[in-house]
C-alpha cells in the first residue's frame, strides 16, 4: 500500500541507500587507489611572520580519482585507516615527500622544513621509527628538515609510549609538532613531559578569533605559551589580511593558510619560494 511505501521510504531512503553504496564503492576504489598509485601529495607553505620567508611545507594527501576527480582526505583517510591500508602507503608517502624536499632544497638557498601528518594509528605503529629513519638515510641531507604533525589525542592515549616514541624521533633529528592544538584533551602537562618543538593553533580558532572574544583569548594564550615554553607557534587557516596582521602583532611565529597559498601540487610552486611581502 501507499502508506507502507512511504514508511519504507523513510527507512531506506534513496539517499541513504546511495550513501551506503557510495561508501562501499569508495572502499573498493580506495584499495585500487593505493595499488594503482592514484594518491598524491599536495603542499602548503608555512611562512615566518617576522620576515615573510619560507619556514616549510605541510604535505597533504589527495586522491586523484580517474572518474570523480580530486578527492579530499576527509573522505578517504578514514577508509585507509579502517582497512589498515594507511600502513601500506607510508613508505610511498614518506619517499615522495623526501624526494620533493631534496629537489626543492637544491633550488632554495635556505633550509626549510617538510611536515608530514601522522595519525594516531600511524603514531602507534612500531614501524614508524624505522620507516622515517630509512627515509632520512635515503635523502642523506644533514639538516633537521623533517617534521611530523601529531594530534594531542594521539599522545594522550599513552603518554609513556608517546614519550619514548617522540624521544627516538628527536634522536633521529625529526621535529615534533602538535597538530590542531586546543581541540583535543588539552592537558597542558604533556607539553612539559614530551619533547615538542612546534604547536599548531587549530584553524577553528583562527577562523573565529574576530567574532569570538574567547577564541581571540585562546589564540593569544597559545602564542604566549609557545613563547614561554620556547616552542614555535604556527597559526593554521590564515585567510585574511586582518588575521595575518593581528597574528603578527601578537608575535605569532609562523602562519599557514589560503592567504599565502592553498595546498597545491608541487609543480605549481616557483622555487626559490618567497619571501612574501607582509601587510
Ligand atoms: P590538518 O592536518 O589539520 O590540515 C589542515 C587542513 O586545513 C588541510 O585540509 C588544508 O587544506 C586546510 N587548510 C589550510 N589552510 C586553510 C585555510 O586558510 N582555510 C581553510 N578553510 N582550510 C585551510 P585537507 O588537506 O583537506 O586535510 C584534512 C586533514 O586530513 C588534515 O588536517 C589531516 O588531519 C588529514 N591528512 C591530510 N593529509 C594527510 C596525510 O598524509 N596523512 C595523514 N595521516 N593525515 C592527513
Ligand atoms: Ca596537519
Ligand atoms: Ca591542523
Ligand atoms: Ca585538522
TrEMBL record:
Can you say where in the cell this protein is located? Answer: Cell inner membrane
All copies of the EAL domain together span 23-277
Protein name per the record = cyclic-guanylate-specific phosphodiesterase
Native species: Permianibacter aggregans
